[in-house]
Design brief:
The chain has about 100 residues and is an alpha+beta fold. Helix 1 (about 15-25) links the parallel strand 1 and strand 2. The radius of gyration is 12 Å and the shape is globular. It has helices at about 15-25, 40-45, 90-99, and strands at about 1-5, 30-35, 55, 60, 75-80, 80-85.
Length: about 100
């Protein structure tokens, strides 16, 4: 399964997501993570980039949020411990099980 981590450079949260995705990739040999730097608003619109970091499989965001806007912003994820800048490992594992 190819996972795309979309991010923009000014948001530090993508590094946390990358570390968590590396754990998933180490656990699952069928998973490959590809980073994609989003640099313009036009590219964000074309990719459906809902903020940094975004995690997609086959162009589908794994954590869609109602009313989320496309753009070069830092993204927040609801987690059991409150809002964070990246999904938890448990949330990622669950999302990939269903992907």
């Amino acid at each position: 399964m190819d996972i795309t981590l979309l991010y923009f450079e000014d948001c530090p949260n993508w590094k946390v997501a990358e570390e968590r995705l590396a754990v998933i990739a180490a656990e699952r040999p069928d998973v490959t993570v590809v980073r994609h730097l989003v640099e313009t608003q036009e590219e964000a619109k074309r990719l459906g980039f809902l903020g940094s970091p975004s995690i997609q499989v086959h162009g589908i965001d794994l954590f869609p949020q109602p009313g989320a806007q496309v753009g070069l912003t830092c993204r927040r994820y609801p987690t059991p411990g409150g809002h964070e800048g990246a999904p938890t490992l448990e949330q990622l594992r669950a999302a990939f099980t269903g992907a």
